[in-house]
């Protein structure tokens, strides 16, 4: 199992490839994860938002986790596997977290309970129960999806819970990581891709970065530059990635990512499960132009 010292660098929330008929495309998943591992990432997330967690069954999560473990063994690496287990039901989240532990996950990513819009006290109680399972817990703050925002005091209280090893901050800016950095030694990863460089300067330990499913080596290099104190070079590297990031979030994630990976031949199809839909022709044209410019450079 992982600890808070492992929570740094670039963690990639992996897309879940589907065939055109909507079934899981295991060969494409294997090819994609193998490529990610070759770029020196620090961790993988299975069944995150980018993996279309709302429409992926637990049997499919089990299959993906087992495939990921097998690939890591084959590659001879020790990259942590984090499995998304959070729901808006505490009992269901506890049950999924127990299953992830049995599958051999190194940690779990648990979103702040969504839709119900619980009180700050209810959110704290939710994480206390999940942390009792004994597998390391990463808190996932994403108010745009959950409908509720953590206060700094609540975030610090949750981070103080034994078994909680850090946070993915997708709050939309750098205010939370800036406030938390002097209050806790537990790491905060940036989950808002356009904010990654600013978050690193504000004290983030890395990023849980959906965009790093593509051009992974460029994201890893930009992080390494920032971590080594070469901020001017890191800023320039992130600036080169921003046009890509902006296009990838112009329409709902992960549809643009899947289009680009399919275009590159990494996965067989850009299929997504409803209610997500494939990208529009206009975005496909913009991504095609970007891809062509990268291929020429």
TrEMBL record:
Pfam families: DHDPS
Predominant subcellular localization, coarse grouping: cytoplasm
Gene Ontology BP, a term: diaminopimelate biosynthetic process
Matches recorded under InterPro entries: DapA, DapA-like, Schiff_base-form_aldolases_CS
Keyword set includes Cytoplasm: yes
Record-annotated site: Part of a proton relay during catalysis: 49, 115
Subcellular location, record wording: Cytoplasm
UniProt-annotated catalytic positions: 140, 168
Residues the entry annotates as binding pyruvate: 50
Catalysis: reaction(s): L-aspartate 4-semialdehyde + pyruvate = (2S,4S)-4-hydroxy-2,3,4,5-tetrahydrodipicolinate + H2O + H(+)
Enzyme Commission (EC) number: 4.3.3.7
Family: Belongs to the DapA family.
Assembly information from the UniProt record: Homotetramer; dimer of dimers.
PANTHER family attached to this UniProt entry: 4-HYDROXY-2-OXOGLUTARATE ALDOLASE, MITOCHONDRIAL, DIHYDRODIPICOLINATE SYNTHASE
Biological role: Catalyzes the condensation of (S)-aspartate-beta-semialdehyde [(S)-ASA] and pyruvate to 4-hydroxy-tetrahydrodipicolinate (HTPA).
Protein name in the entry: 4-hydroxy-tetrahydrodipicolinate synthase
Organism of provenance: Paenibacillus solanacearum
Gene label: dapA_5
């Amino acid at each position: 199992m992982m600890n808070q010292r492992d929570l740094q660098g670039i963690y990639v929330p992996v897309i879940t490839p589907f065939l055109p008929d909507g079934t899981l495309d295991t060969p494409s998943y294997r090819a994609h994860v193998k490529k990610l591992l070759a770029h020196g990432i620090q961790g993988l997330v299975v069944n995150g938002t980018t993996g279309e967690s709302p429409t992926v069954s637990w049997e499919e999560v089990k299959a993906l986790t087992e495939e990921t473990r097998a690939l890591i063994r084959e590659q001879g690496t020790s990259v942590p596997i984090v499995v998304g287990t959070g729901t808006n039901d505490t009992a269901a989240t506890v049950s999924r977290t127990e299953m992830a532990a049995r599958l051999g996950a190194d940690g779990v990513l648990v979103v702040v309970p969504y839709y119900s819009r619980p009180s700050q006290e209810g959110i704290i109680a939710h994480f206390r129960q999940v942390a009792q399972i004994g597998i390391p817990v990463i808190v996932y703050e994403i108010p745009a999806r959950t409908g509720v925002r953590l206060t700094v005091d609540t975030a610090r209280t949750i981070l103080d819970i034994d078994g909680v090893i850090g946070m993915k901050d997708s709050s939309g800016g750098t205010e939370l990581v800036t406030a938390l950095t002097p209050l806790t030694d537990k790491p905060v990863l940036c989950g808002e891709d356009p904010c990654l460089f600013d978050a690193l300067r504000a004290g983030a330990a890395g990023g849980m970065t959906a965009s790093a499913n593509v051009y992974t080596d460029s994201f890893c290099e930009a992080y390494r530059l920032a971590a080594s104190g070469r901020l001017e070079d890191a800023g320039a590297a992130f600036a080169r990635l921003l046009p890509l990031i902006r296009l990838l979030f112009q329409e709902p994630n992960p549809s643009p990512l899947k289009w680009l990976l399919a275009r590159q031949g990494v996965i067989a199809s850009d299929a997504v499960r409803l209610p997500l839909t494939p990208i529009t022709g206009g975005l496909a044209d913009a991504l095609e132009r970007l891809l062509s410019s990268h291929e020429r450079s």
